[in-house]
Design brief:
The protein has 13 helices and eight strands. Helix 3 crosses helix 4. It has two domains: about 180 residues, no CATH class; about 80 residues, Ribonuclease H-like superfamily/Ribonuclease H (Nucleotidyltransferase, domain 5, 2-Layer Sandwich). The strands form three sheets. It has a four-stranded mixed β-sheet with strand order 7-6-5-8. By secondary structure, the protein is of the alpha/beta class. Bound molecules: zinc ion (ZN). Zinc ion (ZN) binds next to helix 10.
């Protein structure tokens, strides 16, 4: 049987000529890869993505709740954790401690290990001048010389924070906003009640520089470009009061007999040399101003140009008098 089948099968030629037009000579392969971010843990991702210290603490509260819930499930406890319950103050404090502890373990791991094993840090450490200690809650804090001071414990031993960390920037920004966008020294004062940031002034300066609110309100106002001065202001050689500016001021109360009367002043200013001539008028009507104008011209001569402040109705009315400048 097998011999007959072999004889019936046609022979197959697998040799393909290189000149065959059906053969594709080049092949292109397109490969795209997507980073899954598996190396970044959830806390790092939250720190990187959250925009404020309050939001970050709130989200870490939920993470801690989930952690507690899983622990209870692993121990087969009957107590249940409500994930949708409102966040309490104690949970926020716990989240803050855990976050700061996480940052310290990332940045000051050597110092922390030295303190745990030897009780002191190495001489090469940048924290050696702070005499650091580990607090009962596991945080790395300034030892300092205030152990006998009658102040709060967290003021005696402020928690150490690194200079270049996003959590530090978020805390500084939070203090800055709580202080109604105050300046550098006041933000530093608020920070030092709780934290000791290595190189704090530079960090605060960086945060304040990038605060959009402060940048908007502290920007220098633009200056309007002034136009060229009129020819009356810059022409020399004319007598004083050739061109004048006119305005009224007052009233001033003067005593006349047993009563008080209002009196006003008309000020004539030479536009070229800023000489001043003042006339007194008894009322704010047009006739009183025209009389003052006549007295001025009798004393100083007739001006060729007069600039009036038109907010005064009587000046506007007087300027319409055709005989004024004749
Ligand atoms: Zn600000």
């Amino acid at each position: 049987m097998s011999g007959r089948r072999d004889r019936a099968r046609p022979a197959v030629n697998n040799d393909v000529s290189a000149e065959d037009p059906e053969v594709k000579r080049t092949a292109q392969i397109y490969l795209s890869s997507l980073a899954t971010g598996e190396s970044e843990n959830i806390i790092d991702r939250m720190i990187r993505r959250r925009s404020s210290w309050s939001i970050l603490k709130r989200d870490v509260c939920y993470v801690l709740r989930m952690k507690l819930k899983l622990l209870l499930l692993a121990k087969k406890e009957t107590e249940s954790i409500d994930m949708k319950a409102l966040i309490t103050v104690s949970e926020l404090r716990a989240a803050e401690i855990e976050l700061v502890k996480y940052v310290e373990r990332q940045t000051f791991s050597e110092e922390y290990e030295s303190l745990r094993t030897n009780g002191c840090v190495k001489k090469s450490s940048s924290l050696r001048y702070l005499d650091p200690v580990v607090l009962p809650n596991g945080l790395l804090a300034v030892g300092g010389r205030l152990k006998r001071a009658s102040i709060a414990e967290h003021c005696k031993h402020p928690v150490i924070l690194p200079r270049r960390h996003r959590v530090t920037n978020l805390i500084v920004n939070h203090c800055h906003e709580m202080a109604a966008h105050s300046g550098r020294e006041y933000v530093l004062l608020l920070l030092q009640k709780k934290y000791w940031i290595v190189g704090a002034r530079a960090v605060i300066r960086h945060v304040l520089k990038n605060c959009a609110f402060c940048r908007r309100y502290n920007v220098k106002p633009l200056q309007q470009k002034m136009s060229d001065l009129p020819s009356a202001r810059v022409t020399a050689g004319n007598p004083p009061f050739t061109s004048v500016g006119v305005d009224l001021f007052g009233p001033f109360e003067v005593k006349q007999g047993r009563s008080l009367r209002k009196r006003y002043g008309v000020v004539f200013v030479c536009l070229a040399i800023k000489a001043v001539h003042i006339e007194i008028v008894h009322s704010m009507d047009t006739d009183a101003f025209l009389n003052a104008m006549q007295r001025f011209m009798c004393r100083r001569g007739q001006p060729t140009e007069m600039v009036m402040v038109m907010v005064n109705v009587n000046l506007y009315s007087a300027s319409s008098q055709k005989s004024l400048m004749r």
